[in-house]
Amino acid sequence: PEDKFSLGPCAERMGELLDCDVKLAPDCIGEDVAALVAGAKEGDVIMLENTRFYKEETKNEAEFVEKLAKPFDMFVNDAFGTAHRAHASTEGVTKFLSPSVSGFLLAKELEYLDGAITSGEKPMAAIVGGSKVSSKITVLEALLDKCEKIIIGGGMVFTFLKAKGLNVGTSLVEDDFVDTAKEVMAKAEKLGKTILLPSDIIVADKFAPDAETQVVAADAIPDGWMGLDNGPATTAEQKEFLSDCKTVIMNGPMGVFEFEAFSKGTFGIVDILADLTKEKGAITIIGGGDSVAACEQSGRAGDMSHISTGGGASLELMEGKVLPGVAALADK
Questions:
Q1: What single-letter DSSP state applies at residue 114?
Q2: Under 8 Å between Cβ of 228 and 257
Q3: Which of 37, 172, 207, 314 has the fewest Cβ atoms nearer than 10 Å?
Q4: pLDDT-derived band at 288, boundaries 50, 70, 90
Q5: Strand, coil or helix: 129
Q6: Mean pLDDT over residues 191-201, rounded?
Q7: CA–CA separation, 54 vs 44, rounded Å?
Q8: Do residues 86 and 110 lie in contact, with contact meaning Cβ atoms separated by under 8 Å?
Q9: pTM as predicted
Q10: Helix axes 264-280, 232-242, angle to 10 degrees
């Protein structure tokens, strides 16, 4: 075990938040842990050392699981961010501890993410961004079935523009997914759904914060230039497009928002969503990962209905997959 992965700082921080002494166990299994738990008084808080110090944790090995569960009576899982993994500490221990139930955060994540997708108020829209179609295609297809409107942003835009026969310069394109993009657009048309792609793009002569930039129409990207963000006309169109929506789910940024020159598209759509909730009472759900970072950086995180704490977990839930860490819990 490496010291830098010890949960010592977490125990210290939790102690500050709870305003009490949080003891860090020397391990997560074994006699020392059992003795510490057995000697604890009501109200005492003990944090187990990092379970990932054992390779058996991620392999969910039965012998390790039994040792991990041994000193305890029940299990509460409140770690939504790891609920999509069938590990010893998320799924394995439920076989030895009863009741095994969800905590308040996990319940809230399921209520918003799962609830919005299965029974959210219409019209419903999804904003799917990020650099690659390949990593978002499953969620895109799942959301296309459920939502009336889809906004596509980020690097994946250029695979769609290429699928429409447009020149994309040196923008990121996944050539293997051009046909997939065509299929998505055809499916949307068949289902009577609307996909909104950017009408203008901020292009750059290189991938760098100090690149030369210009705003061009989406069908006029010059050779040797790459698209790194939505243009202002696109943000205005997105605002109009989403204005009547009652439920909006966002997963992924609109551009390379880490560079200030290419952050306006992402922060623009964050503002649109925050205003929809604040002014019109729409349910806005930010589905993990980069979208959360963008909301926090923009200072509008507090105006959203729900900000997910899981990247991969929220993506899998939106794809309609069963999360092993949730499936293992008791129904009530």
A1: I
A2: no
A3: 207
A4: low
A5: coil
A6: 97
A7: 26
A8: no
A9: 0.87
A10: 20
